Each structure stands twice: as C-alpha cells, then as structure tokens.
Amino acid sequence: MNAPAPAGMLQALPAEHRSRLLRFAREVSFPQGARLFEEGGRADRFWVVRTGGVDLEMRVPGQRAAVIETVRHNELVGWSWLFAPYVWHLGARTTSPVRAYEFDATTIRSVCQDDPALGASVARWVGGVLVHRLRSARTRLLDLYAPYGSGSLL
C-alpha cells in the first residue's frame, strides 16, 4: 500500500510562513521532458509545482532509472538542498509542461536560520516530504526487484 502524499506547501506551512517564503519565489516554466537535476548533482534550488508533473527517478545499476514518484500541483520538488552536503539523491524530469515556484537554496537556508520559527516549519514540511519519498522509493524498488513485490513482509 502506498503512503498518502505529504501535505503540500499550502497545508504544511502556517499562512505567515508560507507568505514569507513565497516572497523569495521566482516563477519558472519548463517544457515536457526537461531535466531539472541529476542524482549526485549540486542541490542549489528547489521548486513547488504549480501546474504539470515531475517524475522523481533513482538510478539503478544495469537498469533504466526507476521512477519513484510523480510530483504534481503544490508539491515540493527537491529536499536535498536542506541537508549538507547539498547533493541530489534522486533525479527529476518533467512529464508535461511545468510551471513552478523556484527558490534559491542558500537564500532560504539563511532566512530559516534568521527566523527559527520559519525554519522549524520548513524543516517539518521538508521532513514529511522526505519520509514519504523514502517510503515511495522502498515500495517502488520492491515492486520492481523483489521476488514477491512490495506486498511481502521482510
């Protein structure tokens, strides 16, 4: 069974923290098939999807990249920017034209450090996303490679 999707930014952050964070957003768009980042690359920004979809992929040796999850409206793309050494743990490619809010990681980390309440809200939001993504990765990899799929108990 798949875990429910984490709360989007609108539900996860209190209104005052959400509006403060959005002051640092830049509106961007990407065509279908655009590569946002590669696994192992420098995590220097993140996005909140407004429209479209983004596949999160994990490299699997000797195989095609496994799609772990598709991120859609109001969901976070990228969590690696918050945790040193700031390196992407997955790759990301758009599945359709995407409009998103883009945030500079260095700026947001600095703002969060200066405002501990905002920092705590952002950390809870990103932490919830991280837990969900790890569960999704485990389930997807078991579906692809385990002898009995994700339904088997270990």
TrEMBL record:
Residues in Cyclic nucleotide-binding domain copies: 9-78
Gene3D superfamilies referenced in this protein's UniProt entry, alphabetically: Jelly Rolls
Entry-linked Pfam families: cNMP_binding
Protein name: Cyclic nucleotide-binding domain-containing protein
